């Protein structure tokens, strides 16, 4: 698997009748795949995954997996069927932690995850989140996930999570308000929940970013949220407009 440096949530482009706009999604995926960005999160919150159906999520994942190398994709898992869909497509799952009452429930979920799975931890979805204490227990028990997008955490939390998980865990801080500090604290790189990265890959842009914006794998900071790429998506409707 590629060790991702920049994770970008992508949109789900829909027709006015509520069906997947397969032509727009396909063109969007092809354009995204031609950029320098490392990893694309399919059917996440920005992609409307929470409110879409398993059938829609499956079809969108199929479209992306046919056009972008699978090791550059993460399939957001909102329901059990999504996990099977990700396996069918050969895409790494990122499992949303939902409605976990306590640490024991969390550990039960972690114990059942595929070895390459990521987790998506957000207090909006579960009262028990992926904390440093949970992470340390999971690591000692041999059930630590491969990585995770961990939301609503402080810089101290990022440092503690990095210490608890070790260097092999791909840690993504779900906030984008303190990018450099988060990377120094141990995060791999940022995910932007405000929609900015969607503009980076919605694109009328050259495939190669300027040298100073590329992710080389050696940079202390490689995320960019201000490339000169014209958006072609109406974010309110998730439909192509140009």
Describe the protein's architecture and organization.
The protein is α/β, with parallel strands linked by helices and 242 residues long. 32% of the residues lie in helices and 14% in strands. The chain has a single domain, classed as TIM Barrel. It is globular and about 45 Å long.
**Most strands sheet:** 7 strands, parallel
Q: Regions with pLDDT < 50 over 5+ consecutive residues?
A: 190-242
CATH architecture: Alpha-Beta Barrel
Q: Level of helix content?
A: 25-40%
Mean pLDDT: 77
Give the count of helical stretches.
8
How is the largest sheet built, in terms of strand order? 1-2-3-4-5-6-7
The CATH superfamily turns out to be Aldolase class I
Q: Do you know the CATH topology?
A: TIM Barrel
Q: Characterize the overall form.
A: globular
Work out the strand percent.
5-15%
Distance between the termini: 34 Å
Task: Count the E strands.
Answer: 9
Order of helices and strands: EHEHEHEHEHEHEHHEE
Question: What is the domain tally?
Answer: 1
CATH class: Alpha Beta
What structural class should be given to the helix and strand makeup? Answer: alpha/beta
Radius of gyration: 17 Å
Task: List the defining traits of the structure above.
242 residues; alpha/beta; TIM Barrel; seven-stranded parallel β-sheet; two-stranded antiparallel sheet; 8 helices; 32% helix; 14% strand; globular; disordered C terminus
